[in-house]
Amino acid sequence: MKRLTTSIPMALVAVFLTAAVWMPSAQAGDELHRLTADPKYFGSFEESSTVLEPPGISVYDKTVFVPGDANVLYLTMSTTGDTHGGSAQCFTALVDGNFFNPGGQGAARCAGNGTVNVPGWIALTKLPDAGTNCSDGGGGGGDCHDNGINYQWCTPINRGTHSVQVRMATNSVGKEVFIEQAFFYVDSSHVKKGGSACGVTPKGDGGDRVR
């Protein structure tokens, strides 16, 4: 009795297996969608600096469109920075003029030389102003150049066009802070119970505005 056999090329089998592995899921709504990726402050003498306490200066502005059923927005900053005179380098992120997170924990002592809590802000770099520490650029012991800064904000969001911004400030008027060679990323995703995501009030429903 003859057996009927069918040979399937291995290359075709590999195609079938790859398709099975990479087949999009109908439940893929929780994927992270990158809306923009922007480099800033590259090149000779390309940097941003300020001697102002909050609200400081804008170091990033962008208008993005949040697509589909996304209900959470993320803003990520990856850069290098330094400070003068033992000051703290403070940042905040805004969407449509509202703080991503209006909270004011201990890391928000961003005014009065570190004695005043500023809601919505966070200190990401602070180095001791010791005489033997660094003084890389003549800005005192705390002037240690090229400190890595990486931080991400998140907030509930609605579909549509939104304006995002990152602002930078010193915690002590007159003591300069800097960033350079920065990347800014804005992403969105859909998460279950997105209205309570990130621990803050959904934007458009009474969020605090920047002052």
Describe this structure in words.
By secondary structure, the protein is mostly beta strands. It has one domain: Sandwich (Jelly Rolls), CATH 2.60.120. 6% of the residues lie in helices and 41% in strands. It is built from 1 helix and 12 strands, in the order H-E-E-E-E-E-E-E-E-E-E-E-E. It has one helix at 10-22; strands spanning 33-40, 48-50, 57-66, 72-83, 88-95, 98-99, 109-111, 116-117, 122-126, 147-156, 160-170, 177-189. Strands 1, 2, 4, 10 and 12 form a 5-stranded antiparallel sheet that branches. Strands 3, 5, 6, 9 and 11 form a 5-stranded antiparallel sheet that branches. A hairpin with a 4-residue loop joins strand 7 and strand 8. The longest helix has 13 residues, at 10-22. The chain is globular, with a radius of gyration of 23 Å. The N and C termini lie far apart (88 Å). Residues 1-6, 12-28 and 205-211 have low confidence and may be disordered.
